[in-house]
């Protein structure tokens, strides 16, 4: 199984930590971001899309597949800073 990722770090262009320090007891995890994309001209809006952290997706896939890895693709378009990523999952568990 191969799934392309909408990596929150690439969308937000900041390094989003998986876990953050707060003054409260316990731990706070940044699991995903909610974002919207408005196409040129504003005619089409892709609203309230959810992009889980890559580590969250690895944990979810790891629960169902024995072999899970990140695959990096080359930069898609001139001017883009980051490489695109995908998760490759093999050998489904329990089969």
Write up what this structure looks like.
This protein is mainly beta. The protein has one domain. Helices cover 15% and strands 40% of the residues. Strand 2 and strand 3 form a beta hairpin. The longest helix has 9 residues. The chain is globular and about 50 Å long. The mean pLDDT is 83.
Helix and strand arrangement:
Layout: E1 2-4, H1 8-12, E2 19-20, E3 28-29, E4 32-38, E5 45-52, H2 54-62, E6 65-72, E7 85-92
Antiparallel strand pairs: 1-7, 2-3, 4-5, 6-7
Number of domains: 1
* Shape field: globular
Order of helices and strands: EHEEEEHEE
Helix content: 10-25%
Reported for the largest beta sheet, the result is:
3 strands, antiparallel
- Rounded to the nearest angstrom, the radius of gyration is 16 Å
The oligomeric status of these chains comes to single chain
How many DSSP-defined strands?
7
Q: Which regions contain 5 or more consecutive residues with pLDDT less than 50?
A: none
Distance between the termini: 15 Å
Main-sheet strand order equals 1-7-6
Q: Can you summarize this structure?
A:
The protein is built from two helices and seven strands. By secondary structure, the chain is mainly beta.
List keywords for this structure.
three-stranded antiparallel β-sheet, 7 strands, mainly beta, 40% strand, 95 residues, two-stranded antiparallel sheet, 2 helices, single chain
């Amino acid at each position: 199984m191969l799934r392309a990722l909408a990596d929150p770090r690439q969308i937000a262009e900041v390094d989003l930590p998986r876990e953050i320090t707060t003054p409260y007891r316990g731990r706070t995890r940044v699991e995903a971001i909610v974002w919207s994309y408005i196409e040129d001209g504003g005619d089409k809006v892709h609203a309230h899309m959810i992009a889980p952290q890559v580590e969250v997706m690895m944990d979810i896939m790891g629960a169902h597949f024995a072999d899970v890895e990140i695959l990096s693709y080359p930069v898609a378009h001139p001017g883009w800073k980051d490489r695109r990523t995908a998760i490759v999952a093999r050998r489904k568990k329990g089969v």
